[in-house]
Amino acid sequence: MPSNQRPRTKASGRRAGSEPTAKSSIGAATSLRDTAYNAIKHQIITCAFRPGEYINELQLSALLKIGRTPVHQALDRLMIEGMVEVIPRKGVIVKPVSLNEVLQIIEVRLINEPFGARLAAEHANDSDLTELADVLDRAKHWATLRNLENMMLLDRELHLLIAKASKNEVLTELLRNLHERSLRFWFISLNAPTQYESVQNEHDAIFAAIRQRDPNMADAAMRRHIESFRANVSQYC
Predict the structure, then answer these.
(1) Distance, CA of 14 to CA of 200 (rounded, Å)
(2) Closest by alpha carbon to 30, among 81, 77, 62?
(3) Where is 91: in which H helix or E strand?
(4) What CA–CA distance (Å, rounded) separates 235 from 227?
(5) Residue intervals in the chain for CATH 1.10.10.10
(6) CATH code 1.20.120.530 region(s) in the chain
(7) How far apart are CA 144 and CA 139, in angstroms?
(8) Are 178 and 109 in contact (CB under 8 A)?
């Protein structure tokens, strides 16, 4: 072979020195980790994995049809976010629902989320308003069917969209974490048709204020909404 010709690898047919395999494997690992994270978190916040229940990495891997490494990485992330705990010599446990912790989270939300709604009223664009209106329409549909899981997931989506409409990324990430940490109690405590209607009315009031570009009204509507959630949670204290 002439010395100025580079060899070709028989296994792949690509020229030696090419790098797509490394990049694609990193992307695949990240995708699997995120898939495992989202799937496990969904099971936790909908209480399919009950508070205090032990969860096994090997069983999760089989359930999700994903290798143990992405599952382990997902559990590490959920531990940081306060959704699972590692008990020495016993394994991973779904963190029990603490009423005191939920009330503390609500206190922090009361400080930050009305301000996020105020910013959303000032900065939301037409695309933000369209997305918010769509979520509200879908939430009303599932409320008529009393589908608690879909209502909860749309509640999460609505609050995240409002936070994103604030155009403050630090605040958005803070509110995302706070809201998701209180979702399990939302799922447990929202159990009466009148509560469904109250939540929908409160959401409509928040959206109306944002659409009207009224920061004070948005702040007050969000504050009433969170106070209502706190009053409902307090029944379990």
Answers:
(1) 57
(2) 77
(3) strand 91-94
(4) 13
(5) 21-94
(6) 99-234
(7) 9
(8) yes
Q: What is the CATH number of domain 21-94?
A: 1.10.10.10
Length of the chain: 237
Q: Which residues pair with 93 in a beta bridge?
A: 54, 85
What is the residue type of 236?
A: Y
Among 94, 35, 92, which residue's Cα sits nearest to residue 58?
A: 92
Cβ–Cβ < 8 Å for 47, 184: yes
Residue 57 identity = E
Q: Which has the closest alpha carbon to 47: 188, 155, 192? A: 188
- Nearest alpha carbon to residue 149 among 138, 161, 160, 164: 138
List, edge to edge, every strand of the sheet that includes 91-94: 54-55, 91-94, 84-87
What's the pTM value of the predicted model, to 2 decimals? 0.76
Q: Which CATH superfamily is domain 99-234 in?
A: GntR ligand-binding domain-like (1.20.120.530)
Q: Residue 184: name the closest of 81, 45, 38, 52 by CA.
A: 45
Q: How far apart are the first and last CA of the chain?
A: 81
Sequential pLDDT tens for the chain (237 residues): 444 444 444 444 444 444 444 444 445 556 888 999 999 998 998 888 988 999 989 999 999 999 999 999 999 999 988 889 988 888 899 998 888 888 899 999 999 999 999 999 999 999 999 999 999 999 999 888 888 888 888 999 999 999 999 999 999 999 998 888 888 877 776 666 667 788 899 999 999 999 999 999 999 999 999 999 888 877 765
Return the number of other C-beta atoms located less than 10 Å from residue 68's C-beta: 13
